[in-house]
Amino acid sequence: MVLLGQQTGLVRHRGPSRRKLTVTLAAIVVLAGALTAVLVRQYNDRPPWGDDIAYEGGYLLATRIRQADVSGERTKELLSGGCARMLAEGFGGRRATHNKGLWVAGCLDGATGHQSAKQGLFH
């Protein structure tokens, strides 16, 4: 029994033509390539989150030094210009190359025992 308004057979749906599909995919590839070129030109070897990397690198190094410092002398030395001296001597490594000022700021925060200003998803 067939009720009014109901279809009795399956209707075949034809998708977009191969030409439209090919043109659309080509446009997506071109846009993705252009976006990639813009990002590479903007950041080159430096990642977009390089500031976070620099800060955390200094913070972690100073935190490790502070935690291992039993007498407190090394921590005092960090706070009295030791972070900048460590950076000048190359202790910052590749992380410091992203932003030297933030590496020193992270080092000072780690030496004082402050919580990292760059932790969490939203900072």
Descriptive overview:
With about 120 residues, the protein is mostly helical. The chain contains 5 helices and no strands. It has helices at about 20-45, 50-70, 75-90, 95, 100-110. Helix 2 (about 50-70) packs antiparallel against helix 3 and helix 3 runs antiparallel to helix 5. The mean pLDDT is about 85.
In total, the number of strands is: 0
- Secondary-structure content class: mainly alpha
If you compute it from the alpha carbons, what radius of gyration comes out, rounded to the nearest whole angstrom? 28 Å
Element pattern in H and E: HHHHH
Shape annotation: elongated
Distance between the termini: 65 Å
For the residues shown, what is the average pLDDT? 83
Portion in strands: under 5%
Main sheet attributes: strand count, strand direction, barrel closure: none
Helical amount among residues, as a percent range?
55-70%
Number of helices: 5
Which descriptors apply to this entry?
5 helices; about 120 residues; mainly alpha
Write the layout of secondary structure elements.
Elements: H1 18-43, H2 50-68, H3 73-88, H4 93-96, H5 100-112
Describe what is shown at a glance.
With 123 residues, the protein is an all-alpha fold. The protein has 5 helices and no strands.
